[in-house]
Specification:
about 220 residues; alpha/beta; six-stranded parallel beta sheet; five-stranded antiparallel beta sheet; 9 helices; elongated
Amino acid sequence: MKSYVVIGLGRFGIQVATRLYEYGEDVLAMDIIEDPVNNIADNVTRAVCVDAKNRDVLRGLGVQNCDCAIVATGSNLADSVLITMNLKALGVPRIICKASNDTHREILEKLGADEVIIPERVVADKTARALAAPNILEFLELSADYGIVELKSPVGWIGRSIKELNVRAKYGVTIIAVRQHEKIKVSPSADFKITEESTLVLLGDYESLNQLKKTKR
């Protein structure tokens, strides 16, 4: 179990805090406003109404012992800056900040935030990717360049073996698993034949994965 502190209980902060708690993690949630603190109290490990801009308050709550802090204070850059500086000074090992735009992101990164998220952009990117590639069922981002997708069997692949398709050489991706109905075949052999019911789990860079959209045409 890892320990997290989520600072700022707007919609983004509440979603992150409650989801982490649902996953079995230890979550300390805080906000300067009492209502969101009271509303989330039963869905996190601990919820407190405090001013996170006060470093002594954070120290008293033991924030320095957390594995990761999420600064979700919304569009108020001044608050995010002060809180991030406090967390850095206390030695929190990983700090993730929410930002409203690229200017805020650059400032927070220069202050030492390990990751800065613009939630609207993340949602927009995911939605656009789904619309542009309707044959992709699920997507998992591994890094800025690589991801894993579940892809319906392209028509031209049906009835052919992985060896015949030579997927890695032709498309720059690797078939790491094949799902058929309720069964999943992990690391299928080169002789494994793709069927109409096959859903492929592919690993590759985004450019290569996007190229696979053309295989259904």
